[in-house]
Amino acid sequence: KLFNFTKIKTDPLELILTFSVLVIVITAAYLYSYFYDKKRGVAYKTTTREITLGAVALALAFVLSFVKLFSLTNAGSITLASVLPIALFCYVYGFRKSLPVTFIFAVLNFIQKPYVVSPWSVLLDYFIPYLALSLIGLFAVKDAPNETKPLKTHWKFFVGIAVYFGVRYVSHFLSGVLYWNEAYDFMGFNGVQTGFNAVAYSLVYNAVYLIPDTVIAAVAALVVLRSRTINHVLFDFYYKSFDDDSAVSVNPDKDNAKKSFDRSNQVKSDN
């Protein structure tokens, strides 16, 4: 049930502090990325369409997160590619613009059916796993689609998916070890497993649902990114995310994007 917070076992003040620290860290990462791009001479504009697409991606991902193909007893489920809309948004708009969207997605997942025994479980089970989707933005699209082999353009997207999976898996694994290992009494974490049993249990338990869930999203991405129409739409969104009115005189990413976009349109018109 939504907004069912009966399984939150930690002090509300600790939760407030945790959320405050998260907001500070995310804001710092956003500002660092902004000034880094500005130093490189790259300026991006935020458009109404971009905000709308972020909202649509969030809505689709949230709805798909309720389509559970399989659920485990102690949380964890296989969904119908629920992370794909957010992943594609991150891929098109890059790391900085992905941060607010992935943070909201983490909050939406948190309110679905939260089970919290300490601030660490908030971080390791909810926010780090879903904020990891923003790392796909580090591999953002920068070239127009290859007309004959569209997927050739997007190999970096799948590298980003692998990075996201690795971060999410490690985060859930650490949460499981801390929770199930009774040798740990760490900020509210207690469990019934001990030593290697806790490690093995967490490794297997999280792999059972995370691997299929990520594979389903990756296969769905293969289908989507094979479409030439989708490819042109995605790149058009990326190209128009640059700020034409910026005072920056040199915009290397946009210059390269324009050349790639013009070549792609020329090939398309010739055909």
Morphology call: globular
List the strand order in the largest sheet: 1-2
Unreliable stretches covering 5 or more consecutive residues:
244-252
What percent of residues are in strands? under 5%
Radius of gyration, whole Å: 20 Å
Helical fraction equals 55-70%
What oligomeric state best describes the polypeptide chains here? single chain
Number of helices: 8
Query: For the report, how would you describe the main beta sheet?
Result: 2 strands, antiparallel
**SSE order, as H and E?**
HHEEHHHHHH
What is the residue-averaged pLDDT?
80
**Helix/strand/pairing class, anyone?**
mainly alpha
What is the number of strand segments?
2
Distance between the termini: 53 Å
How would you describe what is shown here?
The structure is a single chain. By secondary structure, the protein is mainly α. It is 65% helix and 3% strand. It has 8 helices and 2 strands, in the order ααββαααααα. It has a two-stranded antiparallel ribbon with strand order 1-2. Helix 2 crosses helix 3. The protein is globular.
